[in-house]
Design goal:
The protein is an alpha/beta fold and about 290 residues long. The protein has eleven helices and twelve strands. The mean pLDDT is about 90.
């Protein structure tokens, strides 16, 4: 099997279609089909399930894909290392991130990095904590932003502390004039909450402080949560980073006890990152490290 065979399989798996993969790679659909059939014949099992609506990975295909990604990533690393030996900085870095990092940091990261290293391309993958962890573990991205509490068994380098705040409607009236909310105060109000894969740090805070929230609204993204709060449907807890440039009128309070989410960058093998990925990794830590 050749590297092109591996690239064909990876592209078909991501595109879910022989025709789309052919367009992406500049090949004919018949060439794509032949490449996949040859690979399956050599392996001795089916990698894809074909149907009128497209193709999906078989169980064998799902297990093979991470190894294919590892081979392709190793080839990219080799090319970048050779370029580095020749005094060049080039290549491609695949970066995983969650929503608030994508909106607050990624545009500036791409711009500032491009100014220093115009020959290195950054490909961005945005998703939940669970998505980013999956992408890192399966070699889909070189490294990704995660909160430390959501990294699980992935190696992660913490570098940024992001305080958690209590967010309430603009017309919210406190019983006192203190500039913070206590657990007791928050327990009296209905919450707008998100899935644990999206706000693991907030869920941990609620559990650690035995705050059994009354939650009648369960949403997915940060902006929807804040919109619900602004409309008077409850209160929520949000990282400070999320609250930058929010278009809704709300009040923000520190909390007692206070808490933060710690953001880090996770990589499957930090010591063996490709030169371009390592260069971007160091660039990000240098610009945003606050702990």
């Amino acid at each position: 099997m050749t590297l092109l065979t591996y690239q064909v399989f990876k592209t078909v798996a991501e595109a879910g279609s022989f025709h789309k993969a052919a367009e992406i790679l500049g090949l004919t659909p018949s060439a794509i089909s032949h490449s996949i059939s040859s690979m399956e014949g050599e392996l001795g099992f089916s990698l894809l399930t074909r149907s009128k609506s497209g193709v999906t990975l078989t169980n064998y295909g799902e297990h093979v894909l991470p190894y294919v990604n590892a081979v392709l990533n190793a080839d990219e690393s080799f090319k970048q290392a050779v370029a580095e030996f020749n005094g060049l900085k080039q290549g491609k870095v695949k970066l995983g991130c969650f929503s608030s990092v994508c909106t607050n940091w990624v545009p500036e990261i791409i711009q500032s990095f491009r100014e220093e290293y115009p020959a290195i391309r950054i490909e961005v993958f945005q998703g939940t904590y669970d998505d980013v962890a999956y992408w890192v573990k399966n070699g889909i991205v070189d490294f990704g932003f995660l909160s430390v509490s959501s990294a699980g068994d992935l190696p992660i380098e913490p570098f940024y502390r992001d305080p958690l705040l209590c967010i309430v409607p603009a017309d919210f009236q406190k019983d006192d004039d203190k500039n913070y909310m206590t657990i007791e105060e928050m327990s009296k109000h209905q919450f707008v909450v998100q899935r644990e894969s999206t706000d693991a740090d907030i869920q941990n805070y609620l559990k650690q402080n035995h705050l059994d929230v009354q939650a009648g609204y369960h949403v997915v993204d940060d902006l929807s949560t804040i919109a619900m709060v602004a409309s008077g449907f409850g209160i929520c807890i949000m990282p400070e980073m999320v609250m930058k440039d929010i278009p809704y009128e709300v009040k923000r309070y520190k909390m007692k006890p206070d808490a933060s989410r710690v953001i880090g960058m996770a990589a499957l093998s930090p010591e063996f990152m490709a030169p371009a990925a390592r260069t971007l990794y160091r660039h990000i830590v240098k610009r945003y490290k606050n702990i």
